[in-house]
Amino acid sequence: MSTSESTPSLHFIQTIIEEDRAKGKHEGRVQTRFPPEPNGYLHIGHAKSICLNFGLAQQYGGKCNLRFDDTNPVKEDIEYIRSIEEDVAWLGFQWDGLYYASDYFEQLYEWALQLIKAGKAYVCDLDADAVREHRGTLTAPGKISPYRERTVEENLDLFDRMRRGEFPDGSRTLRARVDVPPYPPMGHPNLNMRDPVMYRILHATHPHAGDKWCIYPMYDWAHGQSDSIEKITHSICTLEFENHRPLYDWYLDQLGIFHPQQIEFARLNLSYTVMSKRKLLELVREKYVQGWDDPRMPTICGLRRRGYTPESIRKFCERIGVSKFNGTIEMSWLEDSLREDLNKRALRVMAVLKPLKVVIENYPEGQVEELEAVNNPEDATAGTRKVPFTRELFIEQDDFREDPPRDFFRLAPGREVRLRWGYFLKCNSVIKNERGEVVELRCTYDPTTRGGNAPDGRKVKGTIHWVSASHALDAEVRLYDHLFLKANPEEVPEGQSYHVNLNPNSLVVLKGCKLEPGLASATSGNRYQFERQGYFCADAVDSKPGALVFNRTVSLRDTWAKIEKAQQQPGKKKG
Predict the structure, then answer these.
(1) How far apart are CA 423 and CA 304, in angstroms?
(2) Looking at residue 566, what is its pLDDT?
(3) Which end of the chain has fewer CB atoms at under 10 Å, N or C?
């Protein structure tokens, strides 16, 4: 192993922390936080932030809080709060403190009074559209509000009356009075510094604070001060907050309170999906998916229901690293992290998704053998299991070709294959229905080949899986694929939305699948490799004893599927 493999290099946030500790900054203390807004379910992008914040705290012997930045009661819900707690815990992290920005509303209000008294904040009567218009653009300065020069006494009186509920929603705001020489008022090149709104009037019940407040702080006002209250040392945010950092610093400097350092990193963008909370909510509300936990969704609860493990997601987040440059990560990176994890832990079982009946004509009727099967060749401690073998079996329809192409090594008329953990099997005849479809195979087996080897040394090229027809469990199997057809769902013709790129085959439901009997008690916490099919788990919502439903978590690499696809393309030579 090379030195670079054994001692991975530090990413830029670790370098900052290392330098801070070396200088004795904050007495070497590291305090981080994960601060979600409870206005939706967490997705894989949040998982990167969770792993980063909690991971840094663990690495440096520090602490990490879970804080809900709950400043907008109209969009927030207790359902989201509980789901966030569940997701963080499921990923394997335990917060050192559980806080709400709304718990700090009284202190934030007092600090707002401090800025008013210092001439750094004023009550503005412009409505939201007028505030936006007065803000200016990236190329033109804004206009000063006609209410910017109100006296301290008038501002204090109006702000108090705002709190007491005397004014209707949207009629007044409290704005910061930002003067940063050499820029003129409302002329700062950063639009966030042009007298930003600190409070708006909103008569709404808050999911945590109830009806105590009718004025609510804006995120930029609440966030930095909440960090300060919690003595956060390194406030780690995604890159879209980089332009907000001057305002973050300005508020803290004006108040003269503990000043955390805000550090921005690139958010996670993943191919074949969307990561916008607004778009995810739209997919749910317009029923393009079956809920936040739909296994096609990039939400953590969706990934959990699909069968992802917390270990695989943590490994994925570790592999993609931390940088300051935005980019898109291929979905295959996430899937490969999962395959690697499940390959070590998932029990192997046999399941036939598209059954084709096989009758072994020279096998005794009524006889049942128990064949020994290895549970996981990657884990010797997983042991073995017994699978029943009988005269009538089910195999996959795709494992038989009446007229096989050159590179097809599975079952065909007159051809012999190996049954997994069982015997050599030879197809002698084919039975079809009135539509000419193959519905049954008549075969013979070689009783001397139990275990998969022939005493005479003859070889077969194909090995197929099977289940005993009389012992098989019926199940519904859901095959999940990418939610979108294009790696970038936003790549659409002008005038169209990302909806046109939704994959109509992102979910294929198979009924009447046949599973080996040991899966009767499968739960969502168990992951299995259906041999030669992929990794699956019982659905946490719909699967019940006697009515099993399995989700495909991720497929296996299928060389034959690639061959067939290539053969179907024009100009390709067929075998």
Answers:
(1) 38
(2) 58
(3) N
Residue 554 pLDDT greater than 60, yes or no: yes
- Residues whose CB is less than 8 angstroms from the CB of residue 139 and which lie 6 or more positions away in sequence, other chains included: none
Are 146 and 205 in contact by the 8 Å Cβ rule? The answer is no
Distance CA 10, CA 2 (A): 16
Question: What is the structure's pLDDT at 563?
Answer: 45
pLDDT at res. 525: 85
Distance CA 396, CA 415 (A): 16
Contact between 489 and 563 (Cβ < 8 Å): no
Q: Which tokens go with 179?
A: 């003067």
Which structure tokens are listed for 507?
């979910």
Please give the average per-residue pLDDT across 231-259, as a whole number.
97
Please provide the DSSP assignment of 479-541 as one string.
EE--SBSSSSTT---TT--GGGGB-TTSEEEEEEEEE-GGGTT--TT-EEEETTTEEEEE-TT
Residue carrying structure tokens 């690639």: 562
Cis ω before 36 (30° cut-off from 0): no
- Distance CA(528)–CA(449), nearest Å, equals 27
CA-nearest of 284, 219, 230, 297 to 257 is: 230
Dihedral Cα 343, 344, 347, 351, nearest 10 deg: 10
Beta-carbon contacts of residue 160 (< 8 Å; ≥ 6 apart): none
For the stretch 506-548, pLDDT in tens is 999 999 999 999 999 999 889 999 999 999 999 999 999 999 9
pTM: 0.91
